[in-house]
Design a protein that fits this description.
CATH architecture of the largest domain: 3-Layer(aba) Sandwich
CATH superfamily of the largest domain: Isopropylmalate Dehydrogenase
Helix content: 40-55%
Strand order of the largest sheet: 1-2-11-10-3-4-9-7-8
Largest sheet: 9 strands, mixed
Bound molecules: nicotinamide-adenine-dinucleotide
CATH topology of the largest domain: Isopropylmalate Dehydrogenase
Number of helices: 12
Radius of gyration: 20 Å
Number of strands: 11
CATH class of the largest domain: Alpha Beta
Number of domains: 2
Length: 354
C-alpha cells in the first residue's frame, strides 16, 4: 500500500491538513488507490509532546513513507525557546535528512482570482511561473555560522557556499521541468558581486548545453524582484539559490492573490518528496476555521503527479479546485465581494467536485 506521512504541525497546519486528508480519502474511494495516511507530530506541537520539534519517530515515519504531506510549523509561543528546538529547525532538519534539495513552487493564477491579486488583472491573468529553489545548500546551511563577541562588539556571521555538484543537480531539475513547459529557464543570481554566483552562472550555462531546446537567460536578483512585479508573465521556469528562492517565491505568491493558494514540492534525487503549502502556520487566524485549505489540497495534486505518477488524478484535483472557485466559493483571504466560506466548506466543495 502506498503510504503518505501526514505531519500536520502547528497553528492552521492541522486545519488545512485535515481537508487534504479528506481529499486523499475521497481519491481512495473513487480510484481504489489505497493510500494510507499515518500521522505524526512535528514543530512546536512535537516539542511540547516530546521535547524536540522533529522527534526520531516522526523522522523515521517520513523516511519510511513514499511521500510526506506537511501542514505548517511555528508560532509565537515557541519563539523564546533555544534556537535548535524551534519549530522551523524541524523543517531544515527534515529537508536535510530526506535530501530534499529541489523545491518547486508554482505561481499559477486561477482566472477566477484575477481580481484578488494586488496587481492589475491584465498584468497577472494567465500567470504560470515555476520557481525552482535549491533547498539544502547555500547560506542557510553554510559553515561557519554563529554569534560571537569580537573586539568587544557582538557580531553575527553566516557563510554562503555552493559546490559545483549542488548547482549542477538543481540545474538539471530546472531544465527538465522547463522541457515539460514553455522551455525557458531564467537563472537568478548576483554574479556582479558574489563569487558563489559566478560559479552558479558558469555551471548553469554548462548544464544548459545539455538541453539545447531550452532557452537559458540570467538575471540579477534585484532586477528579478523588480521584473516579477513589473511583468511577471515574462518568466517560465526560474532557478535560483536557497535564500534568493525563499524571497522570490513569497513575492510571486502575492501575485496570485493569496499565499493560501500556493502549493510546493520538495524533491530528492528519486522523486520522493515532501509536499506542503507555501504559507506558514498563520497563528493570527488559528482555531477560527477560516484558513484557506487550497494550497494544501493543491500540494496533494503535486504529490500525485511527481511522486505517484498519477497525472490524471492530479488534474482532477486541480479541476475540482477550479470548479469550486468557479461556483463562487471563497475563503476570507481570497474573497472580494463574496461572503467568506469556512475551511471545511471549501474542503466539502472540492470533494463534491472530484
Ligand atoms: P504565514 O504564512 O503564517 O502568515 C502570513 C499571513 O498570511 C497571515 O496574515 C496569515 O493569516 C495569512 N495566511 C497564511 N496562510 C493562510 C491560509 N491558508 N489561509 C488564509 N490566510 C493565510 O507567515 P508568518 O505570519 O510570517 O509566520 C507565522 C509562523 O509560521 C511563524 O512562526 C513562521 O516561522 C512560520 N512559518 C512556517 C512555514 C512552514 O511551516 N513552512 C513557512 C513560513 C512561516
Amino acid at each position: 500500500m502506498p503510504k503518505i506521512a501526514i505531519l500536520p504541525g502547528d497553528g492552521i497546519g492541522p486545519e488545512v491538513a485535515e481537508q487534504a486528508v479528506r481529499v486523499i480519502e475521497a481519491i481512495n474511494a473513487k480510484h481504489n488507490t489505497g493510500f494510507e495516511c499515518p500521522t505524526a507530530p512535528m514543530g512546536g506541537t512535537a516539542y511540547d509532546l516530546h521535547g524536540h520539534p522533529l522527534p526520531p519517530a516522526t523522522l523515521a515515519l517520513a523516511q519510511e513513507c513514499d511521500a510526506v504531506l506537511l501542514g505548517a510549523v511555528g508560532g509565537p509561543q515557541w519563539e523564546a525557546i533555544k534556537r535548535e528546538h524551534r519549530p522551523e529547525r524541524a523543517l531544515l532538519g527534515i529537508r536535510k535528512a530526506l535530501n530534499l534539495f529541489a523545491n518547486l513552487r508554482p505561481a499559477t493564477l486561477f482566472p477566477q482570482l484575477a481580481e484578488a491579486s494586488t496587481l492589475k488583472p491584465e498584468v497577472v491573468s494567465g500567470l504560470d511561473i515555476m520557481i525552482v529553489r535549491e533547498l539544502t545548500g547555500g547560506i542557510y546551511f553554510g559553515q561557519p555560522r554563529g554569534l560571537e563577541t569580537r573586539d568587544g562588539e557582538r557580531m553575527g556571521f553566516n557563510t554562503l557556499t555552493y559546490t559545483e555538484s549542488e548547482i549542477r543537480r538543481i540545474g538539471h531539475v530546472a531544465f527538465r521541468t522547463a522541457l515539460l513547459r514553455d522551455k525557458r529557464v531564467c537563472s537568478v543570481d548576483k554574479a556582479n558581486v558574489l563569487e558563489v554566483s559566478e560559479l552558479w552562472r558558469e555551471i548553469m550555462i554548462s548544464v544548459g548545453e545539455e538541453y539545447p531546446e531550452v532557452e537559458l537567460s540570467h538575471m540579477y536578483i534585484d532586477n528579478a524582484c523588480m521584473q516579477l512585479v513589473r511583468a511577471p508573465k515574462q518568466f517560465d521556469v526560474v532557478v535560483t539559490t536557497n535564500l534568493f528562492g525563499d524571497i522570490l517565491s513569497d513575492a510571486a505568491s502575492m501575485l496570485t492573490g493569496s499565499i493560501g493558494m500556493l502549493p510546493s514540492a520538495s524533491l530528492d534525487q528519486n522523486g520522493k518528496g515532501m509536499y506542503e503549502p507555501v504559507h506558514g502556520s498563520a497563528p493570527d487566524i488559528q482555531g477560527q476555521g477560516i484558513a484557506n485549505p487550497l494550497a494544501t489540497i493543491l500540494s496533494v495534486a503535486m504529490m500525485m503527479r511527481s511522486t505517484f505518477k498519477l497525472p490524471e488524478i492530479a488534474a482532477s484535483i486541480e479541476n475540482a479546485v477550479a470548479e469550486s472557485l468557479e461556483s463562487g466559493l471563497r475563503t476570507a483571504d481570497i474573497a472580494t465581494s463574496q461572503t467568506p466560506c469556512s475551511t471545511s466548506e471549501m474542503g466539502d466543495a472540492v470533494i463534491s467536485k472530484l
